[in-house]
Specification:
Keywords: Cell inner membrane, Cell membrane, Membrane, Transmembrane, Transmembrane helix, Transport. It is found in: Cell inner membrane; Cell membrane. By secondary structure, the protein is mostly helical. The protein is built from 19 helices and no strands. The protein has helices at 2-18, 20-26, 32-38, 43-71, 73-92, 97-115, 117-125, 128-142, 144-160, 163-183, 198-210, 216-234, 236-243, 251-272, 278-302, 307-333, 340-364, 371-388, 397-403. It starts with a helix and ends in an 8-residue tail after the last helix.
Length: 411
């Protein structure tokens, strides 16, 4: 019971760290028109800061991952959080859209550097089914951030203007620094002896990670699944506010239903992992996702969509991500031992870059209907399933023994 409580406590703290990025993106969505007005810019320009953040976040992870393998998890997380805090306060002082976007990029670098250590810490301490259960707990708690972030941002916007949103983000990062210092131990006990230059260390770390080609199916799958999620998030304002003409007052509630579906699924996944092999869960979820996205495409193509049916289909698609994320990440990291930070950097970079790419592509095919969005989601789902088809075949007896030790601990 003690281990269970400790594991759950660690998962909650790491989830709070991982939630930094959903908070950094979703809290200011409702404030974008106000920011554009105050900075004498336009909404599309300020919207660009979302893609810029995702790009900077990916770069931050790539830069910080190998460093966390070399010098430890905690120093990298604290450095990233410091950068995030300073840049958040600089955003408050921004007087132009260029300045705003620049500091959002720096903020993203810090956020990526801080967040990249979360999965690496889990990989340092857990493997197999146990790591999947920890990731499921993290994923479930982490998705609470986009669930509440728009509402939190709206409250700050109404009470004290858009600047207060970024002061809140800075304060949240300060809280994370305290948690990291006091309640998350250093897990990288065996540091890499600095016998090679830093540049050579990067090359060696990423080369060792990329040689593990057996982990690629899980990497590609999650990148494509991230494309689904970011396509929905990027187009959320169009879907709800423009197409279905939902009021701005009700928008946060509709938006919150999307991550809520993933939270519920993550909770179910956590229970399934106690008795079902994670490859089986992953394969089943990928099949379900493919079937639901096919229905979504057919529905938006052959009829005039109504909000409740559309919401049911979109939420069902996002729910499958609650089963896919934790198992993809757990299986991927099983192939990467001492390079957990570098491996997670590639995983995070690929998923966020793909998400930004597909989110942007959906804008190129805009025609005022939901069909292009549905087709893009369907393509991502199909490619994800194709990537996982062979990798999630029935596990060997030895793999099953590794997955289910005689006395597994439960987070």
């Amino acid at each position: 019971m003690g281990n269970t409580s400790q594991h759950r406590g660690l998962a909650i703290r790491l989830a709070a760290l991982t939630a930094l990025t959903p908070f950094a993106i979703d809290t200011y969505l409702a404030a974008i028109p106000r920011i554009a007005e105050d900075l004498q810019s336009d909404v599309p320009t300020i919207n660009l800061s979302i893609s810029v953040y995702l790009f900077g976040f990916a770069l931050g992870q790539l830069a910080a991952g190998p460093l966390s393998d070399r010098i430890g998890r905690r120093p990298i997380a604290l450095t990233g959080l410091t950068i995030f805090i300073v840049s958040s306060l600089a955003i408050v002082l921004s007087h132009s859209s260029d300045n705003f976007i620049f500091w959002r990029f720096i903020q993203a670098l810090g956020g990526g550097g801080a967040s990249v250590v979360s999965a690496a810490i889990v990989r340092d301490r857990f493997q197999g089914q146990e790591s999947a259960r920890i990731f499921a707990t993290i994923g479930m708690i982490m998705m609470v951030a986009p669930l509440i972030a728009p509402g939190v941002g709206s409250i700050f916007l109404a009470a004290a203007g858009w600047h207060s949103i970024f002061i809140f983000l800075a304060a949240y990062a300060v809280l994370l620094m305290w948690i990291m210092t006091k309640h998350i131990p250093e897990t990288k006990k065996e540091h890499v002896t600095p016998t090679v230059s830093l540049s050579r260390h990067y090359v060696q770390a990423y080369a060792a990670t990329l040689r593990q080609t057996a982990s690629y199916p899980y990497l590609f799958s999650q990148a494509l699944v991230s494309g689904i999620l970011l396509t929905v998030i990027t187009n959320a304002s169009f879907i709800f506010l423009t197409y279905f003409e939902v009021s701005q007052l009700h928008f946060p509630f509709y938006f919150a239903s999307v991550p809520l579906a993933s939270v519920v699924a993550s909770r179910i996944n956590l229970h399934l992992l106690r008795r079902t092999e994670r490859r089986v869960i992953l394969r089943t979820a990928a099949i379900a996702q493919l079937l639901i996205t096919a229905l979504l495409v057919l529905y938006t193509w052959m009829s005039t969509p109504v909000i409740w049916v559309t919401m049911a289909l979109i939420c069902s698609v996002i729910a499958t991500i609650g089963f896919i994320y934790a198992n993809n990440l757990s299986l991927y990291l099983d192939f990467h031992g001492k390079t957990g930070g570098s491996a997670n950097a590639i995983f995070g970079c690929a998923t966020f870059a793909a998400g930004a790419l597909f989110g942007g592509v959906s804008s190129l095919f805009y025609d005022g209907t939901l069909l292009p969005i549905s087709i893009l989601i369907g393509v991502c789902s199909l490619l994800s399933f194709m990537s996982l088809f062979k990798a999630t075949a029935e596990a060997s007896p030895q793999q099953e023994q590794d997955e289910f030790p005689q006395k597994p601990s439960t987070p």
